[in-house]
Amino acid sequence: MTAIAQQKTGQNQKGQSKRPTRWLRNLNAKIASIPMILVALVVFLGGSVWTVVYSFTNSKLLPRLKFVGLDQYDRLWGSARWIISIENLAIYGVLSLIFSLVIGFLLAALMDQKIRFENLFRTIFLYPFALSFIVTGLVWQWVLNPELGIQSVIRSLGFTTFNFDPLYNPQLVIYGILIAGLWQGTGLVMCMMLAGLRGIDEDIWKAARVDGIPTWKTYLMIVIPMMRPVFITTLVIIASGIVKVYDLVVAQTSGGPGIASEVPAKYVYDYMFQAQNLGQGFAASTMMLVTVAIIIVPWAYLEFGGRKRG
To answer: What whole-number distance in Å separates Cα of residue 20 and Cα of residue 91?
Structure first.
C-alpha cells in the first residue's frame, strides 16, 4: 500500500510539474497575440455590445442613453421597407447558396479532369472575384440595360419582341442582382471545391472504377461526403457575404425601382447616415448580428464540436 501511495504521489508531482511548462509553451507567441485579442474584444465584441445596447434607445443624430424598450424593433418590423429587404435577402440568399455551390462544384469537377489550359480557365473563372462589388454592379448595370445590353443586342439581330430588363422590373430586380453576384462569387467557390477534390486520394477513384461504380454515383456517394468540411466552410463564407450585401445593390439599382431591391445593409446605412436615426439603424444592425450568429454558431458546433467527439 505504501509503495502504491508513493507511486501515486510521484505521478501527481510529475503532473503538477508538467502543468506550468504546458502553459509556458510558445510563450512569445502568446504574448504577441495579446494586442490582437484586445482589439478583438474592444472593437468587435465591444462594438457589438454597444450596438445592441443603443438599439433600445431613442438615439437620433448622436447616441444617447434614453431607453425606449422595444419601440425601435416594433417600428422596424412594422416598416414595409424592412420587410421587403428581408424578403429580398431571403430570395437572394437561398438562390445564391444553391447556384453558387452547384455551379462551383460542377466547374471544379470539370477542371479536375486535367483539361488542357487549366490555368487559363481557372484564371478566367476566378478573375471576377478580384473586382470590387461596385465595379461588378456597374458592369452588370450596363449589361442588363435594355438600351445598351443584352436586350438591345438580341433585338438588333431581328428578335424585336425580346424583352430582358430585370433591373427595371420590380418583380425581377432581385434576380438581376443575383446574376451579378453569381458571376463574381462562383469562381471562388470553384477554387475551394477544386482544392477539396484535389485532396481526394487517387486510390479511391481507382477502387470505384474497379467496382464499376458510375462517375456520378462516385461523386454523390463518396466524394461529396468526404468533402464535408470544404462544403461547410464554403457555406459559411457565402452566407456571411449574403448577409452584408450592399455594394452590389447600390451600384446596380440604388435600391430601386422604388424600394423593390432594398436589402438590410442598405436599410441600416440609410437610417444611420441619411435619416439620422441611429436607434433604428442600431436595431436593424442587431437583427443582422442575430442572423450572422445563426450562421456561425451551427458552423462552429459542426466543426469544433464534431472534432471533440471524434
So the answer is: 54
- Distance, in Å, from the CA atom of 284 to the CA atom of 272, rounded to the nearest integer, reads 10
Q: What is the pLDDT of residue 236?
A: 84
- Record the cell numbers describing residue 67, joined without a space: 431607453
134 and 147 Cβ atoms separated by less than 8 Å: no
pTM score of the predicted model: 0.82
β partners of residue 57: 67
| Domains of the chain with CATH codes | 73-309 (1.10.3720.10)
In the predicted model, residues of the chain with pLDDT beneath 70 are 1-24, 303-310
Looking at residue 283, its pLDDT comes to 94
What pLDDT does residue 63 have? 87
How many degrees, rounded to 5, is the angle at CA 308 between CA 238 and CA 192?
25
At 5, list the grid cell.
501511495
| CA–CA distance, 112 with 190 (Å, rounded to integer) | 10
The DSSP-derived string for the chain is -HHHHHHHHHHHHHHHHHHHHHHHTTHHHHHHTHHHHHHIIIIIIHHHHHHHHHTTB--SSS----B-TTHHHHHHHT-HHHHHHHHHHHHHHHHHHHHHHHHHHHHHHHHTT--TTHHHHHHHHHGGGGS-HHHHHHHHHHHT-TTTSHHHHHHHTT-TT----GGG-TTTHHHHHHHHHHHHHHHHHHHHHHHHHHTS-HHHHHHHHHTT--HHHHIIIIIHHHTHHHHHHHHHHHHHHHHT--HHHHHHTTT-STTTT--HHHHHHIIIIIS--HHHHHHHHHHHHHHHHHHHHHHHIIIIIHHHH-
Diameter of the chain measured on Cα atoms: 102
- As a whole number of angstroms, the distance between CA 296 and CA 239 comes to 9
Q: Would you tell me how many other CB atoms lie within 10 Å of the CB of residue 136?
A: 21
Q: Taking a C-beta distance cutoff of 8 angstroms, is the pair 294, 305 a contact?
A: no
